[in-house]
Design a protein that fits this description.
Length: about 140
């Protein structure tokens, strides 16, 4: 019997695009839901770009302890930029389709940014561990080189 069902099941599945629904049952409120998303996105971009600007301009901030902060700012910009614009397209313009390639690209950037974020946090933890455990050797162990 199962073999017979397998013969008649000739359904072709074409996964050339995915359709994103946004928030189900709240389609009428998508305009209002997009307001906090966009405000927090632009505030995050403004804060991270401001941090990068001041670390880049001020020579006294070109030290080892500010390098991970600038790298964290870059990964935060990358993570939010790989997610929020697509969500805004769903909320504002009702563009719910995404190709398989677009989905894979978005997943790639999200995962790379997450791994980079974790690596930077691990590096910061190592930096603090050296500063606490070997405070007299910190300047020789942790250098820009």
């Amino acid at each position: 019997m199962n073999h017979l069902m397998a013969v008649f099941n000739l359904t072709h599945f074409d996964a050339s695009a995915f359709f994103l629904m946004g928030i189900p049952d709240l389609e009428a409120a998508h305009d209002w839901i997009s307001v906090p998303f966009s405000i927090f996105y632009f505030m995050g971009l403004l804060g991270n770009f401001t941090l990068l600007y001041f670390i880049g301009k001020e020579q006294t901030l070109h030290k080892m302890m500010y390098l991970p902060l600038s790298m964290l700012a870059l990964t935060e910009i990358g993570t939010s930029t790989s997610v929020v614009p697509n969500a805004m397209c769903i909320f504002w313009f009702n563009l719910k389709g995404i190709t398989v390639g677009g989905c894979l690209t978005q997943m790639f950037f999200i995962h790379v940014a997450s791994v980079t974020h974790s690596a930077i946090l691990m590096t910061m933890a190592f930096d603090r561990c050296v500063a606490i455990c070997n405070p007299l050797r910190y300047a020789t162990v942790i250098t820009n080189a």
